[in-house]
Amino acid sequence: MADWSALHAYIHSNYTVSDGDADIVKLVFALDGGRSQLVLVARGGELEGSEWAVISTAVCKEGDISPREALIRNSEMLVGALALVEDGPVIFRYAIRLADLDPAEFEAPIKIAAIFGDELEKELAKSDQF
Fold first, then answer.
1. What residues in the chain have per-residue pLDDT under 70?
2. CATH classification of the domain holding 63
3. What is residue 1's predicted lDDT score, i.e. its pLDDT?
4. I need a labelling partner for 56 at 20 to 30 A (CA). Which of 33, 94, 96, 128 fits?
5. What pTM did the predictor assign?
């Protein structure tokens, strides 16, 4: 998948899309225990001549985690990071370069976002609101 349009088409061909537009796709994953997780895949822009996409999922409200705890968790993550959306929730965010991305390289991060995001939400928010 060399660009956003190829990834966008791949997602629409292989997943049930909940909502979205030309620059963002919303997917809802059904998880164990009747839980679900909303994951967004968005056009991320360009960096050094390559297009990027951002996979993100909300994990808790800002008050559910201290800034210090979020930074410590970030330092322990192999991939992705926690971030705070302006006037919104804390999210788990993972960026992928599209220039030479193959489908398998997309499958892992989308599943990581859904499963890890839900685990963090369960732990931090103690609910299933996202």
1. 1
2. 3.30.1460.10
3. 67
4. 33
5. 0.90
